[in-house]
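User: I'm preparing a small set of examples for a lab meeting where we compare how different chains pack in three dimensions. I only have the primary sequence for this one, and I'd like the structure in token form so I can line it up with the others. Please keep the answer compact; I'll paste it straight into my notes.
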Amino acid sequence: MDEKLEKIKMCRHSLSHVLAKAVKNVFGKENVKLAIGPAIDDGFYYDFDMPAVTPEKYAEIEKEMKSIIGKSQEFKRVELSRGAALELFKDEPYKIELINELPDGETISCYYLGDDFVDLCRGPHVENTAKLQAYAYKINRISGAYWKGDEHNKMLQRVYVYAFPDKKQLADYINMLEEAQKRDHNKLGRELELFTTVDYVGQGLPIMLPKGTKILQILQRFVEDEEAKRGWQLTKTPLMAKSDLYKISGHWDHYKDGMFVLGDEEKDKEVFALRPMTCPFQYQAYLNKARSYRDLPLRYDETSTLFRNEASGEMHGLIRVRQFTISEGHLMCTPEQLEQEFRGCLELATFMLKTLGLYEDASYRFSQWDPANREKYIGTNEQWDEAQGIMEKILKDLDVPYYVGVGEAAFYGPKLDIQIKNVWGKEDTLITIQIDQMLAEKFGMVYTDKDGEKKNPYIIHRTSIGCYERTLAYLIEKYAGAFPVWLAPTQVKVMNISESNEQYAQEIYQKLYDLGYRVEFDNRNEKIGYKIREAASMKIPYMIIIGDGEKDTNTISIRGRGNENASGLQLDDFIARLQSEIDTKKIK
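Assistant: Understood. Below is the structure token output for the 588-residue chain.
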């Protein structure tokens, strides 16, 4: 962590002590027991054992914090023996528990804030609360938190506080959160009827509704067609396999905890597992017949449904789920072809990101193995050094601006992970390109080279658009649900003003429908203002509004997103415009 961030962290932690003192002053020292109060990315929190705190008390606590800071009180460090610490904190049961857990011989320190408040703490802190005068802080929320995160322990009250070096940074952060709330795919995706979840179906198993399914269908067809143009051949492989397959690939030994296993190894003759990856299945297509160097590169792709037993705490909307569909591919090539084929995979990924409008949001992580955690990986040190050396050279040759992630490699090889952050700042992998020189040998995959020798091909594992569900989540957030026309589940909504123009509106709708556009017709007996507001709330790109004026002149009026209004248009002119936006995949 750099010096500036360390200083901010220290100030935030110092403010957590100010909060603890303020809470004691407001609610009475005898009514409040202290737990812990660390700094976090946007401020700090403190856990208290005390009576329930309502939002009405926030202002009073903040006022008391301001009073404490205004008195320029000193933070004073004191080191104690274990006996002295136990005596000092005898009325603080959570502090007593922490003291008793400290190893023998460890220095026990506490910090006084003024003369009337002390807290068990390693520090460091600012010298004086005067250093915190410029800081802006605001109580965010109070939630329940089990002591030490154990549900068997007492539920405490966790007070979260935003804290930034000045008022502008705090205001900017709160504005960012408000914008994130508007764009959060987990909320917006439900409001726009794209997906839902059901408790008794299961966590991480979203139900895609017709509109969300339509977007996924559009993406899938686009991806498969684009891959076919680049020489990729579709396969379709099983959703499960016997454990024997996963034992060959190494998934059974290195990834079993992340798999859904069907059967009992001790009781059943055959044990199956739902597939977490497609690679060992697609290798069987390669192994279907003898191969020579003339067959390479050989590119297999598949729209693959995968299953991963993610921890319940990791589930988040469409970004992290237990069943998902991915644009997965495996490419077998000679060593001489490796760099050019890797370039092709990266160019495909870049094309997809640019087309979707996500390119500017991406970062690149060179995911390497961790030699200190050897049991996670297969292969020798020499094989890993060689594979990572090859990938490093390729990334430098292609001028890819990457950062290194040690320990992020797959168990069989290094990879380039294209990362995207969601609206809350959490980063996940969207697209991956991996180099693998180990699994071909494990599966007996060979080709006959020009010299007649049998050799193992290099394998590139890649996705072109990544997980479709995750991609949809990022697109919802990127466009706040207002998808580009080519992706929008409903592209046009036709609506009539009154019964007298309903027939003409019906004709407009039918022509658009017959031409293959995704169009809806709203002929309900509702006021036109209500219909417009409802369509706008669903982020539909274009509304065609038909009244008597349009009927009499055989024209249309349109209302586009962004308050665009135009009247007296010819339907054919509008269709030409609509088709141009679709053909060019216009994103703005």
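A couple of notes for your slides: The mean pLDDT is 93. The longest strand covers residues 136-146.

User: Perfect, thanks.
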